[in-house]
Amino acid sequence: xxxxAKHDDSKGQYFWVWGALLVLTAIEVVLAYRxxxxxxxxxxxxxxxxxxxxxxxxxxxxxxxxxxxxxRWMITFSxxxxxxxxxxxxxxxxxxxxxxxxx
Amino acid sequence: MAEATLEHHAVEHGLPGVYEAPLFGAYSKKVGMWLxxxxxxxxxxxxxxxxxxxxxxxxxxxxPFHVAxxxxxxxxxxxxxxxxxxxxxxxxxxxxxxRAWTRNWLLATMAFGTAFIVLHGMxxxxxxxxxxxxxxxxxxxxxxxxxxxxxxxxAPQFPATFFTLTAMHMLHVTIGVIYxxxxxxxxxxxxxxxxxxxxGFLLIPSDNxxxxxxxxxxxxxxxxxxxLFLKPKDYDAHDVEVSGLYWxxxxxxxxxxxxxxxxxxxxxx
Lengths: 103, 269
Known about the structure:
heterodimer, A: 103 residues, 80% helix, B: 269 residues, mainly alpha, Four Helix Bundle (Hemerythrin (Met), subunit A), 10 helices, globular
């Protein structure tokens, strides 16, 4: 079972990751509920925090950090590339509708 | 397990030919689950993009989530994050060969997942009770004058995208709980699942959407029974790890739904 137990399996780091995820969630809630930033800036910050949280989950809880480099890059590159394509496909159109004044 | 064992021996001893090391340094079940999760992430990605797309061009966008809803969603988030921790501990227990603690941690994970589903169901029921409906659907009895009744008319994009996105996620959590139940308890889980389905169907009022939604458990029961009876096996550490990948993915998706759907639609009173 080299591929599921060869890395440092100390449980402590997973409790730290869990704690960090809870703290980041609390920060998100406080930022949103107090409306610290304008909506667009708020969206950027919340998405940034979500990306950090997802990286912690994928890297530690899903153990991708401990997989081979080929596996890491294949998964990450393919999914991120698809999302980038989706972004350029959808959002210019949404903005175009706003600019045209369509209600 | 036999396949995985061959692969591991091949790696350890450097055997040639059919025993070559796997391409990605992982056993095939794990690679298969990763590929499934990559494809499933595109499903959720499309739904999240659809939600955001509708939000950009819909003004004003409804903000129906009061402090009670945000508190509820925050507790749901904490449940999912805690379930990921118990899942990791379950994977460790399975790698140690500790079957009792593997089962205990998986049951704890299922308990957190079930709590998430129940809280989410309560949130849905509350929103529907305030008049939020899908476009084309009639209002539930007595909710036509609710706080959110107008939202369904003036901004039908909100209920359409909200219910689609969260229903898809709730379905994934439900499938995850059933998956973990099969791995943890095997055939013993079938009567438990059947009892939960029957109790839910009998106890949930007939005007509640979950009176019919609970039938997802019956479908899960049939699928789980087919798997357990046609291909009975003793689930090992690899199976637990692969089921954990699925569970963490469900957690991961919620990390985007929570801020995009709930926190960006908060109503400050």
